[in-house]
Amino acid sequence: MRSHPKFSLALGLAGGLFLGAWPRGSSAATITIVNQDGVNEGFNDPTPAAPVGGNPGTTIGAQRLYVFQYAAAIWGGILPSSVEIRIDASFDPNPLNCTATSGVLGSAGPISVVRDFTNAPFTGTWYHVALANRLAGSDFAPSSDDIVSHFNSSVGGANCLPEGWYYGVDGNEGTKIELLPVVLHEFGHGLGFSTLTDAGTNTNTGAYFGTPPPGFPCAYDHFLFDDTQGLLWTQMTAGQRAASAINCQKLAWNGALVTAHAHDFLGPKTVLHVNTPPAIAGDYNVGLADFGPPLNTTGVTGGVVLVNDGVGTTSNGCEPLVNGAQVNGKIALIDRGACTFVTKVKNAQNAGAIGVIVADSVAGCPAVGMGGIDATITIPSVRVTQADGTTLKSQLGTENATLHVAPAVTAGLDAGGRVLVYTPNPVQPGSSVSHWDTSCEPSLLMEPAITDGLSSNVDLTRQFMGDIGWFQGLLAVDAAARQTYGLGPSVPNPSAGSPSIHFTLARDDRVELGIYDLAGRLVARPVSGPLPQGEHTVKWDGTDLAGRPVSAGVYLYRLKTRSFSAARHLVLVR
């Protein structure tokens, strides 16, 4: 057994969802929160607070502790273990790693790791101590706790994400940052969702953990497959692993359970499809915007025109466009830099553009999303790499392109159907490799950024835990759960406006049935409340939460109870 430093995670803000739970049984783990805070701080903060969103606490400290215990109960109900899991937890100020728009929300990791024990799935392999205890059926460190976690009490200050924490557990965080999914995420790291190999750190040597060199892989490494090299991390040299850790969207999770269930949680991919000329035709990866309307399967199609704002770098679109006549009715191509994304898109919209492509100004991985808020933006926009932007510029005047959702392509998967792992270039310390890739849509719990819509479920993290060994000998439980709970396809699909959704409940339960767009935003909630055991059919009338008809496109509907979650897609046509 060796000590290992905690796994730190810097989180920003974006948008998405998640789901998934493991049925609770007699083997459910007991997870205990060990309060490490002092008097009048963190979990002991006596500041009065009104109960909120199912959290009965009457002080800030009590509400924080309730959320942690709530998250512990969720993971305890999912994971089987005869050995108590103890999590050291504290809420500390963290002003140096926080701004008004982004910050470190929390961090967690194993206090120790263990290898070569009875029932270990792989020999010569490090396991996070909580998992090692579960597999061996005994406590390797009875005098020590298993996971250490630290969370940021500065959140909510004027200079640290002033929107503040939301301590409810009902998913109704509004403009605040819901604490519950952050805690679930960080506990996931401590339970096994992280590599111990030197990847995603400041040095990034690809070296295994342990002395003397070359050390040993961890359970996580056995499932990392590099599409370029055609090798697992456990088959590579340290140098090859270091290269793989920055191999943009080419490192994937090779676990059988995650791969088998990926389509239960991930939806169609949004792409830029170049129709002509043939020399550059095809699909290009894009990052999505937090503002403007979501794209659908039809999307927008038009010629591509490079903007000109007449000032400085004329293609960055930071001033009103001087070539508005050429941009009108076309898809505007804009270079990144010098102003916000919303400024660029609004200037293109004012010139009559039907859509926008923002090209990165420096080399890097396939683009992530675009942040910003502007309710007056009514055209879709996407972001592409500098290299793809250069390709688009090489054929100006002859290009025709479509921005749309491609139903046949699943977001976040490689060509082999494996879920991609986060490998930005350059390395992002605390984030690289030990997360799902940001191309996953809807967003997953274990992506590197907390996103709107996340709440109390753990989506593919459950299957991940199965891949690394948590359910060794118990996987029949999943099959049993699927026979007693179920979510059927919508009928008809596609639908002209009022699809029926069928589901089965194994017992009387509290049910939420939500409809989400492909950006992860809640569109409608046809059911929210208790329902009896048995079969149910619910009709969605095709309207949003305000009673307005929604646009045609692909939507995700998900059923969530206290012990089951599942999701499917439906298509509305108008």
Question: How would you describe this protein?
Answer:
The chain has 574 residues and is an alpha+beta fold. It has 3 domains: 2-263 and 414-468, no CATH class; 268-406, Glucose Oxidase, domain 1; 485-572, Immunoglobulin-like. The protein is built from 10 helices and 30 strands. It has helices at residues 60-78, 129-136, 179-191, 238-244, 256-265, 324-327, 341-350, 386-393, 461-468, 476-484, and strands at residues 2-3, 8-11, 13-15, 31-35, 85-92, 103-110, 112-114, 127-128, 147-152, 165-166, 177-178, 224-226, 231-232, 251-253, 268-276, 282-285, 287-288, 300-306, 331-335, 355-359, 381-384, 400-410, 450-452, 486-487, 500-505, 509-516, 522-531, 534-539, 553-560, 565-572. It has an 8-stranded mixed sheet with strand order 16-15-22-18-19-20-21-17, sandwiched between helices. Strands 2-6-9-5-4 form a 5-stranded mixed sheet, covered by helices on one side. A hairpin with a 5-residue loop joins strand 26 (509-516) and strand 27 (522-531). Helix 1 crosses helix 3 and helix 5 (256-265) runs antiparallel to helix 9. It is globular, with a radius of gyration of 24 Å. Mean pLDDT is 86; it is low at 1-26 and 476-483.
Short description:
This protein is of the alpha+beta class.
Can you tag this structure with a few keywords?
Glucose Oxidase, domain 1, 5-stranded mixed β-sheet, 30 strands, Immunoglobulin-like, single chain, 574 residues, 3 domains, 8-stranded mixed β-sheet, alpha+beta
